DNA sequence: AGCGCTTCTTGAACTAGATTAAGATTTTTC
DNA sequence: GAAAAATCTTAATCTAGTTCAAGAAGCGCT
């Protein structure tokens, strides 16, 4: 068990070190402030209406973030797979209820930074400000690219593009969720697939 | 002129200080590394195909970031007004050509951080890492909310929502650009407006 | 191995929004 | 202040994608 946790933390530290260097002491501090959590299939780590009180780093598995519209339909805003962070950062900062829910689509292991330690951790390891500056920058530009794709290509083109870019991932999630992420109905996705094989 | 520039810089420093505290020395360093630039109506600060080599902070005016699709139609990915940063951060970091163009929609004044000084500036004033961490976090979550709106509401609903949220801004830009930003055609926007007055 | 639940498919009728094209209005320029 | 350019409107036709409904596969569970 101890060894297991160590390996988990190693994944996060390796990821951080892709962006900033860390001294052994800093590594130790980070390890001291985070913890791992196992999330069962279909379990929620955040439920809309509740306040988000952690950042989640996916070590293994898949999370989805989604909203419920008035008429009861779900809309997937984003997925997180290995080495991605997910949270409702606005709810986290303002401590107001979140519009979003975050759910595991597989048995998933996450590393957690809790609200109550986040500021202290960032003060003790200021390099994390830079690390997250770069993480948010990437997430932001990736989301802008997504807006660009939504506006400039048809649903069919978006499906093929996503399929070509992340073929392994498409295998792992139900098609109706992919449809929701791409912004159309499962029936329409079925039709696209029927055309071309 | 000197006074004018000082006022400009004050706007940026005031904005930074909404997120992090700055000592007088740090303020001085920041002032030393940035400069202002006046951008004429319709002038481009970034042209797609070129490498983006600066961050731009809008002091006064409006910028738009857009792409050209194969068939020649423009798609506006975002606007920047007073106190917003705009850049193609991916192109900036990788020094690869940008897909986007950035253009002024009014005579606009920006404060510029050039690529060649950015790393040095951040090293000398590490608080800027935190500042931009928070800036990117907001930009990221705002863009996620936009994706949510695109998927969960009709074009008409999006128009009314935008109109209610930013009535003064809607006055300042041509309607066909608003249509492009909201993801539909100018003709459709005309129809929406005809319905309701 | 069979029952129940979740996911996927197909087809027919429908609609939000695109496209095309022409004219009207407003803004800019000399 | 008239001509040119840019923006906005209207209407007819068309299409990508939705909705509804029903059946077919797939898959986890005892």
Secondary-structure map with pairings?
The structure is a homodimer of 197-residue chains.
Chain A: H1 2-17, H2 24-33, E1 35-39, E2 44-46, E3 54-60, E4 63-68, E5 74-80, E6 85-86, H3 89-94, E7 101-104, E8 108-114, H4 115-124, H5 127-152, H6 155-165, H7 167-172, H8 175-182, H9 186-195
Antiparallel strand pairs in A: 1-8, 2-7, 3-6, 3-8, 4-5, 4-7
Helix pairs in contact in A: 2-4, 8-9
The structure holds a DNA duplex (30 and 30 nucleotides).
Low-confidence stretches of chain A: none
Helix count of chain A equals 9
Order of helices and strands of chain A: HHEEEEEEHEEHHHHHH
SS-derived structural category of chain A: alpha+beta
* Molecular shape of chain A: globular
Q: What level of helicity do the residues of chain A show? A: 40-55%
**Sequence of strands across the biggest β-sheet of chain A:** 1-8-3-6
Number of DSSP E strands of chain A: 8
Gyration radius from CA atoms of chain A, angstroms: 18 Å
The main β sheet of chain A shows up as: 4 strands, antiparallel
Share in β-strands of chain A:
15-25%
Oligomer: homodimer
**Mean pLDDT across residues of chain A:** 92
Give the distance, in angstroms, between the N- and C-terminal Cα atoms of chain A: 46 Å
Largest interface: A-B, 30 and 30 residues
């Amino acid at each position: 068990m101890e060894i297991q946790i160590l390996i988990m933390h190693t994944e996060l530290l390796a990821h951080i070190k892709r962006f900033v260097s860390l001294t052994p002491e800093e590594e130790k501090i980070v390890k001291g402030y985070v913890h791992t959590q196992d999330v069962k299939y279909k379990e929620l780590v955040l439920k809309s209406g509740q306040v988000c009180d952690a950042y989640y780093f996916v070590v293994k598995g898949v999370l989805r973030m989604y909203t419920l519209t008035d008429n009861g339909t779900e809309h997937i805003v984003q997925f997180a797979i290995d080495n991605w962070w997910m949270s409702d950062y606005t709810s986290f900062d303002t401590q107001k209820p979140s519009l979003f829910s975050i759910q595991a689509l597989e048995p998933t292991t996450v590393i957690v930074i809790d609200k109550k330690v986040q500021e202290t951790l960032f003060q003790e390891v200021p390099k994390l400000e830079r690390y997250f500056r770069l993480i948010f920058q990437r997430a932001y530009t990736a989301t802008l690219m997504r807006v660009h794709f939504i506006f400039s290509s048809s649903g069919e083109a978006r499906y093929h593009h996503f399929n070509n870019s992340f073929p392994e991932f498409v295998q792992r999630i139900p098609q109706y969720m992919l449809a929701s992420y791409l912004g159309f109905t499962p029936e329409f996705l079925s039709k696209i697939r029927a055309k071309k094989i």
